[in-house]
Specification:
The chain is mainly alpha-helical. It contains 13 helices and no strands. Helix 1 (43-54) packs across helix 5, helix 5 packs across helix 7 and helix 9 runs antiparallel to helix 10. The protein is globular, with a radius of gyration of 23 Å. It starts with 42 loop residues before the first helix and ends with a helix.
């Protein structure tokens, strides 16, 4: 990784006495900027789209790269225990970014500070572009999903207008407060809030629309192009992708015109972060594991827990059994 000297002079990431000072959280979107004028054909933009959808939708990538380089230059995993919870989340996101964006680490090694910022802005462009495209794609489609077949919403909600949604309409308002759109059959049990949470058919439709193909929502194989999951080799569920789809669904139901952290009612970034915090909570790991398994069955039916374990009658299972028997016999001989 770049040496500490590359990021010291004139860099607020370091104090005057050379001690580390991490920049503001990279896992926050940061101030809105004008679009970075660079070609969308750059592979960094392409990979950035997937990173935003499947890893983290609201991070500030230039800051994430700067902080990640600083942390790794100080020892990386050796200092992980000394990091704060937020710093730990940042370095995990940074490492996932290195995995998603092929060739990123050597490119960073050979880059100057200014080039690192440019790389970050390209990836950021991909994140922002994917979010905007998915928002636009779901804007009209979600009205069809929440309208029962053979019926009409009253009053009518135009597919291209947001102002009549949210709490301005009885139907969308009922889905949002309480947030029953998150639950299977739109049924929320206050005594057991995990029951059916994030199992909504509406969320499944939204996930298929974004990650497989719009036509897969109705289980009709009409797609002429590979879906995002296929393009990026995604074959199993991520917590962040569930959170991303849930946030897009929430935003589509509201009357908000843009993703904004200044809107205290429909703050999509805070909504996203709150779900991520729940799914990352170690105390909720059992429920989250069951949730991930359920989602894999809905979206990636070939990825099941049974396929990860050898069959009792398989060659692999027999090899494991014989190895265990041999080890047990050797241990018995040693004891005698």
């Amino acid at each position: 990784m770049p040496s500490k000297s590359n990021f010291s002079e004139g860099d607020s990431s370091w104090t005057a006495n050379g001690q580390k000072h991490i920049c503001p959280s990279a896992l926050e979107h940061g101030p809105r900027k004008r679009p970075y004028v660079l070609t969308t054909q750059d592979p960094l933009v392409h990979r950035g789209r997937h990173f935003g959808q499947a890893v983290h939708a609201f991070c500030n990538v230039p800051t994430l790269l700067t902080n990640g380089i600083i942390l790794l230059s100080e020892g990386g995993s050796d200092t992980l225990e000394s990091l704060t919870v937020d710093e730990r989340k940042e370095i995990m996101a940074f490492r996932e970014l290195l995995r998603v964006v092929l060739g990123l680490e050597p490119r960073l090694v050979a880059s100057s500070k200014e080039e690192v910022v440019e790389i970050g802005e390209l990836i950021q462009k991909g994140i922002n572009g994917a979010r905007a495209d998915d928002t636009k794609g779901m804007k009209g489609t979600i009205i069809d999903w929440i309208t029962l077949k053979g019926q009409l919403l009253s009053p009518h909600i135009p597919c291209n207008v947001k102002s009549g949604r949210g709490f301005n309409h009885e139907h969308t308002g009922a889905l949002l407060c309480p947030a029953v759109f998150l639950y299977a059959d739109y049924t929320y049990d206050p005594e057991d809030p995990w029951n059916g949470l994030l199992h909504s058919g509406l969320l499944v439709s939204a996930y298929k629309h974004i990650f497989t193909s719009p036509s897969s929502v109705d289980q009709e194989l009409k797609a002429t192009h590979s879906g995002n999951a296929c393009i990026h080799g995604m074959c199993c569920m991520t917590k962040a992708s569930i959170t991303y789809v849930t946030t897009q669904t929430h935003f589509s139901l509201t009357s908000a015109q843009v993703f904004s952290c200044t809107d205290l009612i429909t703050d999509s970034e805070q909504f996203y972060l709150s779900i991520m915090e729940l799914l990352d909570d170690p105390d909720e790991s059992n429920e989250v594991d069951q949730l991930i398994t359920w989602w894999n069955r809905q979206i990636f039916p070939l990825y099941t827990m049974s396929e990860q374990l050898p069959s009792k009658n398989s060659v692999l299972a027999r090899i494991c059994q014989k190895r265990a028997e041999y080890k047990e016999l050797c241990d018995a001989d040693n004891d005698s």
